[in-house]
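Researcher: I'd like a candidate sequence for this fold, 455 residues long. If you have to choose between options at a position, lean toward the conservative one.
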């Protein structure tokens, strides 16, 4: 099934919730999830939550047009918001087509606890990048506000165990009671939706281990934080030598242990810094182009070669270095989605980025604008960087030609109507202004008197 690019108003939908949804926490949702979701996704979740009904069925479906009307926004914005909710594990979407038509089932999921959220590599990194280190530290402190802060304690856990206080029939332990067995059959044990399912691993882990072989670091720490390192690689396209430098900067000098929180902060600050100097997009030496095209200039070829060498986020980061900007979380989401859809080649995605930021001079990537260009390219069979460049050159040429064309004069379609002039208008002004005689006045009075008698 192809991924929808806009919410279908004619389709039906039903809202359900997982059994663990009873643990959903509004405060955690607002403090931890909202900054990375954005306002539309935040509103969408509560709009879906308001539709929850006891024992829902497909027969109780309602039209998605009602959802659009409630949110008062476009279908494209709503579908992007839904995809964000799915990506962070708050909504699972199911689809089927039956005799009534298309129907979607949106299953709401519970929020993670603050501690589990902070421990999650993907979510905690996104939140840190979105709100900054100071606000992030405040959230962490708030989530741990009731934890004992006294130091130099020698507390011993003297809590009683279950069997110290409760007695359970041994037969019930070995042979599960029928009521419990039936309940377990009806609903399997839930698992939190994985955020890293099918995440591509194109990172050479063995190469990284070789680069760090003689460095003062506890090697078991790296294996323990392998997912975190791979996540950062996926987000920013960090290669093995660069990752080595970032890891070494994250070592605790007291005990040589890898500090995962320090690593997150270093990566976030490195790839979200506001640049003031041009970077390597314009400076890097370029290898020869694999396939020459007569329509491309030498500058076009240089840009194309650079676009082929960089991951999309890295390319955007370097491009923004030339205008004094930084990559926002929304832009990372846009590029990540384009890469995951795997329809445009990565050099074409980079050319699209260059066109929006470098050529048109926009400060950020806009989802609507980027999607409009990408869909236009795909409709015209454009998937590579060279094809994208030629398409842009042809588009610019056509735009210039339209500007040079003289504007055609509008024809006057009004019809000229010739009306006959009244007799009095043909008389001279002296005749019109001539004073009436006493006889003419008498006749006029008689005429008026006769009219009144007839009435």
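Model: Candidate sequence:
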């Amino acid at each position: 099934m192809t991924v929808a690019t806009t919410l279908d108003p004619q389709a039906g939908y039903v809202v359900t919730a997982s059994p663990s949804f009873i643990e959903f926490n509004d405060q955690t949702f607002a403090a931890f999830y909202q900054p990375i979701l954005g306002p539309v996704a935040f509103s969408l979740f509560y709009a879906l939550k308001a539709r929850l009904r006891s024992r829902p069925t497909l027969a109780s479906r309602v039209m998605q047009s009602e959802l659009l009307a409630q949110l008062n926004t476009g279908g494209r914005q709503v579908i992007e918001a839904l995809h964000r909710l799915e990506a962070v594990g708050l909504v699972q979407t199911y689809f089927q087509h039956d005799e009534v038509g298309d129907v979607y089932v949106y299953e709401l999921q519970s929020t993670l606890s603050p501690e589990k959220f902070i421990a999650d590599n993907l979510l905690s990194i996104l939140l840190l990048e979105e709100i900054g280190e100071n606000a992030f530290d405040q959230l962490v402190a708030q989530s741990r506000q009731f934890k004992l802060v006294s130091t130099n304690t020698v507390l011993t856990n003297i809590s009683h165990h279950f069997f110290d206080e409760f007695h359970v029939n041994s037969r019930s332990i070995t042979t599960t009671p029928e009521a419990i067995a039936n309940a377990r059959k009806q609903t399997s044990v839930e698992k939190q939706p994985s955020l890293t399912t099918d995440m591509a691993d194109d990172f050479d882990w063995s190469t990284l281990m070789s680069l760090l072989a003689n460095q003062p670091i506890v090697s078991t720490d790296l294996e323990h934080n392998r997912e975190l390192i791979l996540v950062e690689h996926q987000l920013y396209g960090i290669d093995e030598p660069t990752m080595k430098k970032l890891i070494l900067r994250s070592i605790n000098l007291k005990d040589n242990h890898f500090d995962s929180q320090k690593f997150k902060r270093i990566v976030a600050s490195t790839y979200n810094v506001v640049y003031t100097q041009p970077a390597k997009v314009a400076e890097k030496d370029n290898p020869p182009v694999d396939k020459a095209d007569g329509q491309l200039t030498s500058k076009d070829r240089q840009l194309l070669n650079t676009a082929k060498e960089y991951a999309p986020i890295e390319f955007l980061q370097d491009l923004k270095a030339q205008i004094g900007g930084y990559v926002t979380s929304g832009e990372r989401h846009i590029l990540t989605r384009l890469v995951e859809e795997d329809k445009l080649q990565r050099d074409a995605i980079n050319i699209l980025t260059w066109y929006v930021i470098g050529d048109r001079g926009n400060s950020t990537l806009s989802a609507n604008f980027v999607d409009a260009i990408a869909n236009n390219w795909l409709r015209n069979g454009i998937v590579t960087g060279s094809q994208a460049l030629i398409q842009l050159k042809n588009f610019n040429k056509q735009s210039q030609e339209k500007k040079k064309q003289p504007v055609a004069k509008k024809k006057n379609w009004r019809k000229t109507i010739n009306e006959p002039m009244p007799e009095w208008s043909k008389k001279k002004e002296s005749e019109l202004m001539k004073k009436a005689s006493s006889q003419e006045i008498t006749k006029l009075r008689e005429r008026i008197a006769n009219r009144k008698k007839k009435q």
